[in-house]
Structures are given as C-alpha cells and as structure tokens.
Amino acid sequence: MKRPSRPKRTRHRAAAKARKRPSLNPDERQRLEKAIGYRFKDEDLLSSALTHPSLIDEFHGAVGFSNQRLEFLGDRVLGLVMAEVLINKYPKEREGFLTKLFHHLVSGPTCADVGHQFGLRDFLFMDASMQSNKSSHYDKAVADAVEALIAAIYHDGGLDAAERFIKKCWIFETLAKDQPDSNANPKTRLSDWCGAHQTAYAVYETIGTSGPDHAPIFTVKASIEGHGEATAKGGNKAEAERAAADALLKQLEPS
Question: Helices 186-196 and 237-252 sit at what angle, rounded to 10 degrees?
C-alpha cells in the first residue's frame, strides 16, 4: 500500500533541517581572519555575522539565522568603544564637538568604508538579487555586516578583542577632515576657550544700530562673566558677533 506523502510545509521543514547554514571554506576563512586581525574560536559566530537577511526564506531560518541580531549588538559595542576613543583623544573638547565626530565615525557610510577596506562583500552570504544590489550612496549590506562582525568578535573574544578590531580597522584619519576650522570662526574659538577654562559661555548683546535702512551697521558686545567684554561692528548681527568674539579673544589671549 502506498504511503501518503507528507504535506508540503512538512517537506520544506525537513529539507531545511537537512540544509546547513552557509559557511566559508578554510581558505576564505583564513583570508578574512588575517584581514581583520582576529581568529574565531566559534566558526558559527563568524558565519552568522556574514549571513544577510535575504537568505532567511531560502534556508527557512529562524530569527537568529541572519546577522540582524548581531548587527543590533555590534552597533552598541561600536558606540561604546568609539565614545571612549574620542573622550581620550580630545580631553578638553565639549560634548557637541565629540557628538559630531561620533556620529560620523559610527555612521553607515563609515562602516561600509571600513568593510570595503578588506573586501567584506566578497565574503557575505546573500541571495542573487542582493549580490548585485549596490547603492550609490553606501553599501548597507557591508555596513550592517561590519557591525555584526564586531558583535561576533565581542561574543567570541570579549570586549578587548572587539576594541582591538575597531582600532585596527577603523578609518580614524577622517577625524581630521571633520574637525571644525576654529580659526575661521572666532565664536567657535571663544566657546572652546570657555570650555577649556571651565567658565560660563560668552553672551552676545546687540547694543546699537546705525546707518541707513538699506545698509545698517550693528554694534555687538561679547562678554564672559568675570573675564571681560569687547564690542565690535558689522554689516549684520552675525558679522558683528564674530568681530566682537575676535576682539574678546585678543584680550584673553594676547600675542
């Protein structure tokens, strides 16, 4: 007597159980681990970090099959390490300055740039449509995989290992490009002076206007409580404030 066939869903589940998740061959794994400077003890963690969500349906994977959960954790580990790096690198800078650099260094485009340094896309497991899907803005699949890789290293070797990977692979020279040009804006320089000397920040007050309506001249006073004040003129308020800040700086930091 012919046995009844199993329902289609049951057959799919059985096939999924028999199918292993994708993994790197020994040569690929050796090349990637050499590039990132870390050798995994648990190969499954590495495979998970490299598995794009586009393969979940193909492999009938559960919520932990792809690298999404690792990406979530890696983003937090990266943020912790990067915040400490900036705090140590810029001990006298204010929170606003640090925040600007922080957001750049943990952004998707920066993570993608990091991954492209060691050709991470070539090691990712994804479906055919994603393999050819490369955004002109930045490669989100690579960026997400970098964060997942950080989490995988964190799970496999601890926070110190994750920190070493970040410090080895991150593009810290971009810091120089993102630092504000303080010489171009005396108000920024004056705020930096206040932060460095732990004083109240400068107050700007428009104390007069003159000239015709079509070409007014503004007079602004910049003052720091307990440290002095200076006045200057300009064709608009912003120009006058910058001039007043520059005049006050010359009092505070005479050459």
Answer: 40
- Residue 147: active-site member: yes
Q: Are 55 and 41 in contact (CB under 8 A)?
A: no
What is the Cα–Cα distance from 187 to 198, expressed in whole angstroms?
Answer: 16
Please tell me which residue in 75, 192, 229, 246 is annotated as part of the active site: 75
Instruction: Indicate whether 6 belongs to any domain.
Output: no
Is the pTM higher than 0.85? Answer: no
pLDDT (tens digit, 9 = 90+) per residue, 33-78? 999 999 999 999 999 999 998 887 777 777 778 899 999 999 999 9
Q: How many domains does the chain have?
A: 2
Residues 128 and 214 in one domain: no
Residues counted in the chain: 255
Compute the distance between CA of residue 17 and CA of residue 15 in angstroms, rounded to an integer. Answer: 5
95 is catalytic: no
Amino acid at 190: L
Set 71, 113, 144, 147: catalytic member: 147
Asked whether residue 32 falls in the same domain as residue 133, the answer is yes
